[in-house]
Description:
The chain is an alpha/beta fold. The protein is built from 8 helices and 17 strands. Helices cover 29% and strands 26% of the residues. It has a 7-stranded parallel beta sheet with strand order 7-11-6-1-4-5-12, sandwiched between helices.
Amino acid sequence: xxxxxxxxxxxxxxxxxxxxxxxxxxxxxxxxxxxxxxxxxxxxxxxxxxxxxxxxxxxxxxxxxxxxxxxxxxxxxxxxxxxxxxxxxxxxxxxxxxxxxxxxxxxxxxxxxxxxxxxxxxxxxxxxxxxxxxxxxxxxxxxxxxxxxxxxxxxxxxxxxxxxxxxxxxxxxxxxxxxxxxxxxxxxxxxxxxxxxxxxxxxxxxxxxxxxxxxxxxxxxxxxxxxxxxxxxxxxxxxxxxxxxxxxxxxxxxxxxxxxxxxxxxxxxxxxxxxxxxxxxxxxxxxxxxxxxxxxxxxxxxxxxxxxxxxxxxxxxxxxxxxxxxxxxxxxx
Length: 333
């Protein structure tokens, strides 16, 4: 199969809306396309056509938008969704296929890669085009985040997933493009399928939160973590963690920030008991404001912090909570 100079972004949707991470991928695709001189395509699946949403994809960088319509997209069944994506992908013959390294992307992209008999580089932090052969250069952390690997895929199409929150979307409402609706009439028996979406209301999503409170090795026990959780609740923040805290079993992997975890860029990032290893910094240094609390005045985290507090983490957090309670009480009187 001879492939064309096209970059296809696989769009992710939730409850009828295109996820922001997909617009980030369009930004990445646009940057790459400037070097290969092709076009950027956007492929998504939905149960019902929403023209305004499809136009948003064009405004964020797509030259052409392809929307596959089938009721199966309303269910969390990636293998069936991927099956419906395969025909348009084979018809369009893109040279490069990109997607976000979200839970959805990490599930559906490997399936597609297997069906297309090609390779997939997951969790990339940077992409480029080799000026000598025009191939996709994929850069991602390896060996637990201790090194950065540069990878080129031998097979075609070249597929890669990119970490969210690394490339801000680029909006241009003057952009124009083509929208094509692909109605798939494949009928799946709902009695044989089961899909349930459970939203945890008590746990804020790290990558979507404007305030993130993260704990590191300085949070030595469960009692300290509970105190940190209380602070996060008071600040309406998501609770994050360093790799060391996850390895100790005090936090779960979905809370991990860093090269081997998630990348965040909130308005405020509060690092508590985090020394500032390069692997962790890579996952949060894009935050607008960084406040660090650490007993070691020489901790690397202070080099990028906008505000640093040197001292015992538990004592400082307790003092902050007391101030918050006082201010809350004053405003209520």
